[in-house]
Amino acid sequence: MILAVAALLLSKAFCARAEFYTSSDFSTSPVNARDSNVKNSTGIKVSEKAFTAILSASIPKTPCQDLTQWAREEWNREDTYRWGSSWTASTSISDFSLMAGTLGFSQGISRLRNPSPAVPSPFKRTAVLSPGIGASLPSFTASEKPKAAMVQVKAGQLPVFQSAFLESGEFYGSVYRNFSAAFLPSATVAATWARFPAGQQWTDSWHPPRRPFKESSFNAFSGEANLTFAHARTATGIGIHQNPFGEPACWARNQTVLLWNDMSLYTQAFTSQGHVLCADGTEEKCRFQFYAVPGYTFRRGKNSIQTGFVWGFSQREEQDRYADLSRTWTARGQVQFNSAGKSLSVTYGSAWTPSHEKAGAVTEEERDSTLNIKIRKAFRKTTSQTSFIWKNNERNENTYTVTQTLSPRNSPVKALSLQGTIERTSTAERRSAKASLSLGKSTRHFAWTVKASVEVKG
Question: Cα dist. 72→22, 23, 374, 451 in Å?
């Protein structure tokens, strides 16, 4: 309440826009009263033309009986708070931006931290490697991040320059430029580099999962290009990482999409040498992956049926000592029917890993399956969405989740959600129910959001 009043007063005093946010999650179990936990995030954000500032505090998932102790001993810890500010100045020849706080980084830095891409969705239609270091202020619910400072300079037709320094000892930098030509409507070239502290201590284990190396720092560099044509988009990236075991190690990735009327074909490929270090000091395990995603949209009047299918595989090195390789095949299809005010989406996917050698032994095959059904319909005063998710893993454990969400229009009630989950294993069955409520209102100078959820575990 104090933060909400402060946000309102700031918006009035500086003619700025202020936001207040608070979210509380409570979970309990009737079987064990001591298994009751609470979590909260509360903060304010003020924006005024070229300046933005945010401050939030979070109570991590804490047993209710320990709340008093947390309030007495933990509330003043630095990792309890997320904060940040940004400032932008523009002249006739250049733009200058400065950002500081517990910042987040994405885009080119994310690809240097963990080079291999995730499995694409069945409706993947874009092939872009966003340039730059992707600096951003923390959100109200952001996880713990080290303090950092970022500067960006853009002068006329010169490339955009970005640089960031982190309290943890990491350093990021990026240079990129957008351009076009007669045969090339849009293109971007970028260079990104980072310095990560990393190291692994020696261990007495007979079979360590990875080779240890002396605590130090290593450099990583990537060059990327995005090219846009009339009916095609392609993005290519190449990375080089310092390697404590010898020569630098490299990786490469490409994303390409072909578009023709209602048809599309997206492909994604990645390859890496051994000993490509990630930001946490572990080695990139993916040696090669390839996925193809064909798609087609059937249209008739105001109705449409969108289809997409993912097929491909990923080959990973299981353990450095034995250099054993495993290959996981993935197939996933999605169909979505859209009509005026309503939609139905069905997604089914499966990942299969055949038996292979691992640490001198032969493993059993693994198979994971997922079914996701969503039904959405817009009424005059509210929108309803119902979803059903089924998951089955290699241990033949099943999880069933049903969620019903209502989103009223022109109301302080933004969303009301009810969720039920059943988890079945070979030896036990666990059930849980969760209710969530989101309230909020937004005006020109002030916005507020209040979220709360209660979960009961059986």
Answer: 21, 21, 45, 25
Judging by DSSP bridges, how do beta strands 303-317 and 325-339 pair with one another? antiparallel
Contact 299, 284 (CB under 8 A): no
CA atoms 128, 134, 139, 144: torsion sign: positive
The span from the CA of 16 to the CA of 140, in Å, is: 19
Q: What is the DSSP letter of 221?
A: E
C-alpha 145/C-alpha 126 separation (Å) is 30
Residue 300: how many other CB atoms lie within 10 Å: 7
As a whole number of Å, the CA-based R_g of the chain is 25
Q: Give the pLDDT confidence score for residue 444 in this predicted structure.
A: 87
CB 255 within 8 A of CB 85: no
First to last CA, the chain: 33
β-strand partners of 267 = 256, 292
373: number of CA atoms within 13 Å, CB side?
6
Q: By C-alpha distance, which of 243, 303, 296 is closest to 273? A: 243
Q: Among 84, 86, 77, which Cα is nearest to 103's?
A: 84
DSSP-assigned letter for residue 9: H
| Cβ count near 445 (within 10 Å) | 14
Share of the chain above pLDDT 90, in %: 59
| pLDDT tens digit sequence for 318-354 | 655 455 678 889 999 999 999 888 999 999 999 887 7
Helix (H, G, I), strand (E, B) or coil at 203: coil
C-alpha–C-alpha distance, residues 234 and 225, integer Å: 8
Asked if pLDDT for residue 34 goes beyond 70, the answer is: yes
Residue 202 pLDDT class (50, 70, 90 cuts): very low
Place of tokens 């005006």: 443
- How far is Cα of residue 386 from the mean position of the Cα atoms in its chain? 24
Helix, strand, coil % (nearest 5) of the chain? 5, 60, 30
